[in-house]
Amino acid sequence: MATIEAGRERFRAALRDYQRAAGGFLTGAGLWLLIGLFFVWAFFQHRDALVTGLVTGSVFALGAIGITLIYGILKFGHFAHGDSMMLSAYLAFFLVSGVIVGERQDTQALPVNLGDLPGAGERIWEFSFGYGLLLAMAAAAVIMAGVFIALDRAVYRPLRRRRSGIVIFSIASLGLALVIRSLMLIFWGADPRSYTRGFRSSFDLLGTRVLYDQLFIFCMAMLLMAAVYLLLYRTKLGKAMRAMADNPDLARISGINTEQIVLWTWGVAGALVAVAGVMLALQAQLKPEIGFIVLLPLFAAAIVGGIGSPHGALLGGLIVGAVQEVAVSTDFPLLGEVSPGYKFSIAFIVLIVILLVRPRGLFGAKQ
């Protein structure tokens, strides 16, 4: 009897060791291997969807970097981020067209707009837009940086002074999201809008049709993310931001102006969210409800990459975007094809899987 019990104990110990090893594999090298195999499989089986997913994912990455910056320094999830993206897109639309919705029809609210500049609407190279949209995007970035700073001063700083908890901050940001969405409905209505109309030029890349607009979106996103990386890791401001993210009290004692760092954080996040919103609308359309729909993919991208990690947000955004697009173009056994309407729900599945196997994300620090 003792021999049988000893054998059972050895078996249980061996099983625990196996489970520990399997868990380490799935949360370490095995997870990276699965991600690599997914991209290889998607490249050969669903190349068109993979290209679209990487373009969409690059936009998610820009928004996720803003979320991870805000969380890293202010320690709360900014639920108004998605609606802020679409507000930025509508601001750019307003600046380039001067149009808001009137009592029954569109009204030209601006006597002069960026689209009236000489040649502003003429196509740049093979893109579907002119330099007027680029100016509107830059102006929207400046405006949204100011809007984010103003919201911090009006809403979040009083909460910080009262030492409110993370739940209060999150509820406040959710309330702001509802206000922002209502403003978009009031000024531009619920009907879809577009920056450009007509045929979009494309080129062939390894047998895949790629729009020139998609090339612009991806390259612009990569360029901005490289700029953010240089800001955070090659400048004195970035060093101060990372110090405050690690330990706010120690940063304050060390002589860092923490309130100034908070302003810079909101400004950078506002500029990034503005560009992301314009490029998302350029990829699809302007709709007020899209801001709420993309909120989950943005948070999924930030958590997959590791909350607080800007380069993790980049990879997380690309992964979430690619998985979404490939999933709705795949014929699953028993399930068949997944409706494109469930595309953004795929981000929820990705989020749950990562939270189960690797809660700290791909690049998150160990707790």
Q: Main β-sheet: number of strands, strand sense, barrel status?
A: 2 strands, antiparallel
CATH architecture: Orthogonal Bundle
CATH class: Mainly Alpha
Sequence of strands across the biggest β-sheet: 1-2
Number of helices: 14
Query: What is the average per-residue confidence, as pLDDT, rounded to a whole number?
Result: 86
- Give the N-terminus to C-terminus distance in angstroms: 43 Å
Q: Radius of gyration over alpha carbons?
A: 23 Å
How would you describe the shape?
A: globular
- Contiguous uncertain segments of 5+ residues: none
SSE order, as H and E? HHHHEEHHEEHHHHHHHEEH
Structural class: mainly alpha
Count of individual domains:
1
Q: Might you state the CATH topology name?
A: ABC transporter involved in vitamin B12 uptake, BtuC
